[in-house]
Design goal:
By secondary structure, the chain is mostly helical. The chain is 75% helix and 0% strand.
Length: 114
């Protein structure tokens, strides 16, 4: 399938998407008191961390962690705007774009370890 650094970036993207899945579901857990939403979160947290661990086999940990957090933050904010009625004002969108720019910059300027 994928090898080396390319695989690392795919693992990292997948880890970030899993982070969005669990973060978006956290409100449904009611403080982790509801069983099924809590189990859903736990599965996606574990999967996200596992995929992040696979990514750092070929990517620098600082880069991988920053990109993982960026994907999760932006994706979860977009989810909140799209599905939870959260604010989508110009300042908030500009800040999200800055995070995206940082993630893209880290992708462009980070060497692989493979």
């Amino acid at each position: 399938m994928f090898t080396g650094s390319s695989a690392g970036w795919w693992f990292l993207l997948s880890a970030g998407l899993c982070e969005i899945c669990y973060a978006a579901a956290i409100p449904k857990t009611a403080g982790f008191t509801r069983l099924w939403p809590t189990l859903y979160c736990a599965v996606f947290i574990a999967l996200s961390l596992y995929l992040l661990a696979l990514a750092v086999r070929t990517l620098p940990v600082g880069t991988a962690y920053a990109v993982w957090v960026g994907i999760g933050a932006v994706g979860t904010a977009i989810y909140g705007i799209a599905f939870l009625g959260e604010a989508a004002n110009a300042g908030r969108i500009a800040c999200l774009l800055l995070i995206v720019a940082g993630v893209v910059g880290l992708k462009l300027f980070s060497p692989s370890m493979a």
